[in-house]
Specification:
Cytochrome Bc1 Complex, Chain D, domain 2, two-stranded antiparallel ribbon, mainly alpha, 218 residues, elongated, binds heme C, 2 strands, single chain, 2 domains, 8 helices
């Protein structure tokens, strides 16, 4: 039956042409999308200024990426006993020297770093910003966070010193300004491999209360 065979052949050809056309459209769209993305970058359309806030959806995506990335990596971390008085005291001193300029502390005036960075460093002494998962907090302090201004502290501080910070950060929301100052004492700060590798003179310490970093005028 040659007529039926030729009809079938024609319809097969038509199907193939239809698929080739669809494929061409898809490739066209992909190339067009890539060119648009390259133009977006090259023409500097995206504003990287810290003063330009992300859209709500961008913030949500970035937060989910960060939370999942940390949660997966923190899973294998064993949390030691926390809240021991000496551990908290040591953590407080290093917090005052290394963290308070960005994350602030009870009774401390906002610093230029806290106000100027975007994303804003969370104020851990405010209960709603206090981190709740010690393993995730440990991981973050040790490794830092890309593209945020949060440094990695693991290179110069032992795991024990980082747990001291975790232990102290956990206590922060319950501390008054007096409690905090008492714990910090003279603000000496310790490094890996040696207690009190350097001491900060309380008179010249940049984190003096109510002052901005010394030696700089407005
Ligand atoms: C130069 C400023 C800066 C310094 C100094 C700094 N941080 Fe951060 N930190 C940040 C920023 C910015 C973020 C990210 C905030 C965000 O992504 O929303 C952050 C995030 C964090 C987080 C994650 C918070 C959360 O809820 O996910 C922890 C924990 C943290 N910092 C602890 C510390 C500790 C402890 C120190 C001191 C050893 C410290 N940081 C020093 C800027 C700083």
């Amino acid at each position: 039956m040659p007529v039926v065979r030729s009809i079938r052949k024609n319809s097969n050809n038509a199907n193939a042409i239809c698929w080739i056309n669809k494929l061409k459209i898809l490739i066209g769209l992909a190339v067009g999308g890539l060119l648009a993305a390259l133009l977006f970058v090259w023409l500097g359309v995206f504003n990287v200024a810290a003063t330009e806030k992300h859209w709500g959806i961008t913030t949500q995506i970035l937060e989910t990426v960060r939370e999942r990335s940390i949660a997966v990596r923190a899973q294998s971390i064993d949390v030691p006993p926390l809240g021991l008085p000496e551990q908290v005291r040591r953590g407080a001193k290093n917090y005052a020297a290394m963290c308070a300029q960005c994350h602030l502390a009870p009774g401390m005036e906002p610093t230029e770093l806290n106000l100027g960075l975007y994303p804003t460093p969370p104020r851990f002494f405010e209960a709603e910003h206090s981190p709740h998962d010690p393993a995730a907090t440990f991981w973050t302090i040790k490794n830092g966070l890309k593209l945020t201004g949060m440094p990695a502290w693991g290179a110069f501080h032992s795991d024990q010193q980082i747990w001291q910070l975790v232990s102290f950060v956990d206590k922060l929301p319950a501390l008054s300004k007096q409690d905090y100052l008492q714990l910090v004492g003279n603000g000496s700060h310790t490094h890996k491999g040696g207690e009190q590798a350097h001491e900060d003179d309380p008179g010249t310490h940049p984190m003096k209360f109510g002052n901005q970093i010394q030696g700089h005028e407005h």
